[in-house]
Design goal:
This protein is of the alpha+beta class. The protein has three domains: 72 residues, no CATH class; 132 residues; 73 residues, no CATH class. Helices cover 25% and strands 27% of the residues. Strands 10-11-12-13-8-9-17 form a seven-stranded antiparallel β-sheet. It has a five-stranded antiparallel β-sheet with strand order 6-5-4-3-7, covered by helices on one side. Strand 3 and strand 4 form a beta hairpin. It is globular and about 75 Å long.
């Protein structure tokens, strides 16, 4: 299994997502007195992880640090081309329709080094314009510039450098379409298709929003067989079964809203059901299973709805960088 399929989800005590790191990633803890420490984290499941040998539920970990007045953040990472697994080969090619929505496809860049092999000429194409935020564009610039400028022989500085990098780092072959590498950050994933050859485009870069991509790779954009939720405006626990209209009220002892929410979160955690899946299941049971709200990728990790993208004709956009 790919490391980036196993990401550790750090949240607040009220289940708002802060950030994700890959299995084995490092966090920086800033204690109330201003001192800093680091800790290595191990993925266990969607809601549990290990920190230096101790096991935590992600909400319990958040409550502990909020109570202690400490903050956590991911360790900064360098932008380096990494290998990928063959099962992700489709991420190196353009997507359309529902597939691009499920995967959070932002757009793609194609580039070449020119006839002398030392230039850098790029063209950008949108997939979903609403995902190409200022935050994304700033990081995209940083990733490309790092691959052009950092190190002794940065791979994107020239065709010769890229050819040498590909020879030393074979990566995965994409049939006759070049070699594939990827860069993954906290928020975005970049899939580079490289073919350093005069007369061809030397580089394609396909970009994805991790809020969509990581749940898709982990299978969390599929609806579960069943889940628990809260009956709208009634404050009672209900059972929802995939594909069935309506839901089944459950007889529970009287609980406060917070107690009921925590019980539902716990029970769905045992079923490995996310808040996004829960909200999609609730919408499907009420409004029909083909409704946009019945698609998990249309919800944030905390279950709040994402604005639906406005469908527009594809527009070519040059010089995105």
């Amino acid at each position: 299994m790919n490391a980036y399929k196993q990401t550790i989800n750090f949240i607040t005590s009220d289940y708002k997502e802060l950030f994700r790191i890959p299995d084995g990633g490092i966090i920086i803890i800033t204690h109330a007195n201003g001192e800093k420490s680091t800790a290595k984290c191990e993925y266990l499941n969607e809601t549990h992880f290990g920190v230096d040998g101790r096991v935590f539920h992600n909400q319990s970990f958040a409550m502990l640090h909020e109570r202690n007045g400490s903050t956590i953040e991911p360790e900064p990472v360098k932008y380096q081309l990494q290998p990928y697994e063959q099962s992700e080969a489709k991420l190196f090619f353009r997507m359309d329709g529902e597939e691009e929505e499920r995967h959070g496809a932002i757009g793609y860049m194609r580039g070449d080094f020119g006839r002398d092999g030392n230039g850098f000429y790029t063209t950008w194409f949108n997939n979903q314009r609403h995902l190409k935020t200022h935050r994304f564009k700033k990081e995209f610039d940083a990733v490309i510039n790092a691959l052009r400028d950092d190190g002794q022989k940065p791979p994107f500085a020239s065709r010769e450098n890229l050819a040498a990098f590909c020879a030393a780092n074979p990566g995965m072959e994409l049939t006759t379409r070049g070699l594939g590498y990827m860069v993954q950050t906290q928020d975005y994933s970049y899939y580079f298709r490289c073919m350093p050859r005069l007369g061809e485009y030397d580089i394609y870069c396909l970009t994805y929003d991790n809020r969509y991509l990581l749940p898709e790779l982990a299978g969390q954009h599929e609806l579960p067989q069943m889940c628990y939720s809260m009956r709208p405006h009634k404050g009672e626990r209900i059972l929802i079964q995939r594909g069935k209209s309506g839901y089944t009220p459950l007889e529970d002892k009287v609980m406060t809203f917070d107690e009921l929410r925590q019980k539902i979160n716990h029970d769905n955690g045992e079923l490995v059901v996310t808040r996004a899946q829960e909200e999609a299941m609730l919408a499907g049971s009420m409004f029909g299973w083909d409704a946009p709200a019945a698609k998990p990728w249309n919800h944030n990790q905390d279950g709040t709805p994402r604005p639906l993208p406005e469908k527009k004709p594809r527009v070519r956009e040059d010089d995105a960088r």
